[in-house]
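Workshop exercise sheet. Pairs work together: one partner reads the sequence aloud, the other fills in the structure field after running the prediction. Swap roles for the next sheet.
Pair: D.N. / O.F.
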Amino acid sequence: MHSPAMRSTARIHWVVGLVASLAACLDEHVGGTSGTSGGSSSTTTTTTTDGGDTTGAPPTTTAIETTTESPTTGSPTTGATTGSTTEAATTEAPGVCGDGVVDPGEACDDGNGDDLDPCTSACALNVCGDGLTLIGIEECDDGNLDDLDECRNNCKWAACGDGLVQAAEECDDGNLVDTDGCPSNCKKAICGDGYVYAGFEGCDDGNLDDGDACTNACALAACGDGIVETGVEACDDGNLVDTDACTSMCAIAVCGDGLIQAGVEQCDDMVASMTCDADCTPAECGDSVVNMVAGEQCDDGAESPTCDADCTPAKCGDGLINMKAGEQCDDGNMLDTDACVGACKNAKCGDGFIRSGVEECDDGNLTPGDGCEADCTKTIAQRIVFVTSTLYTGNLGGLTGADAKCQARATAAGLPGTYKAWLSDLTGSPSTRMTQSAVPYVLVNGTKIANNWADLIDGALLAAISVNELGGAAPVGTTNCGGGGFRTVWSNTTAAGAQANAMWSCSNWSSTTGSSQWGLATATNGSWTNWCNGPTCSYTSPLYCVQQ
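Structure field:
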């Protein structure tokens, strides 16, 4: 390649040679002789040009030869024109790339040697693929047509999303969309790359943790997928069956969750119900699980001293014989005159209870000659004394009404004979209206209380008159004698059988107003008939009844 100084020197030489040739031609035409026959002349001009100080090149010599031809002698001289032809050996300087002039063979010439602008130093247009990077237009230019290397055929750097799969890329679909098969990293979409592949993945969290909200299969974690989601699910067996060990809510099956676990639970009502115990077994008396909802009050698994076989508390008189509780019988009542008496024991002679229709007496022992023989038959004549099982106010209908009440109670109990009430008023008293017997006075169970009438009214009994016509205990009235709660009995009679006070008979036992006097059924001294008095005839108490 030629420098600008060399190109300038060549042009100067060419111009100087041209000027010298023209000057020689002019001299010949002006100073030549007409008519010179056959003459010819030749002139050579030599010009030397200093190359200048710029490059230090040696002087250059250029030779220009000029030839003048005259017409042949003998041509007319008058009016004749001498024909002269001057042929200059002129050579046009060849075009130089870089001189700023677009010469033939050049596509451009911008007068510089910069290969990175639109015109290269070879005076060719800078185009993609020439190996020269055109600044501002091209990003690169590797001089080849390989579209799969780092510099593409359009002279752009290869990049993900340009549609061409480069060596470092697995795919390139020409876009930077992250939800298709080739995301913006130009790697083929796979589960775990952190990009959700639309239509194929439900999620993609970019990790391989199978216990978070997005599984390793890139599906949203859900109960029933077989993967236990940490902190959310307690279990996940891959199904939504509610009868196995892991429920459809991915909770561990337990008794009380309302779901029946096959092979483990027989029922599950969440809480104890009429049909299901709290331990998820069918409600059943005798299963040792107390189910109050099902009506159980106890459940010891079987009959026990405290619980009957029907899961009710063991109690004499409930109709259930509980041998563990010491019962021999239980007829469902508390009568002491039938075959089952006392604390649910079989009735027998000597137990102190007179069995109706079977025993004549039962004084609680088997001692003969005491009025009740060992076979519970009476050995001598006797008179029965009892306290009524029924309570009454002071309005008894007079002495006659009171006697009727005693007779009614004796008849109801199956007792023989005629009975009168141990009461006194202005119309009579035991000492004036009762048969004063010479035989013993006994209780319904055969217990002797007095040997005869004289013994009965001497102020001391052999035993308290505390047994009712049925053989049970005397009832408790409502008087407040002694503070209340005692087994008081209507009386107004002294220990000698006379009226205690004319004002203490509730108006001759016909009113609930007025005052009265009571005896104490549990006493054996004179208090048995004369214990306390008070101004209230509306209280309730039983009567003493004596066989005549």
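Discussion prompt: The two ends are 172 Å apart (CA to CA). What would you look at next?
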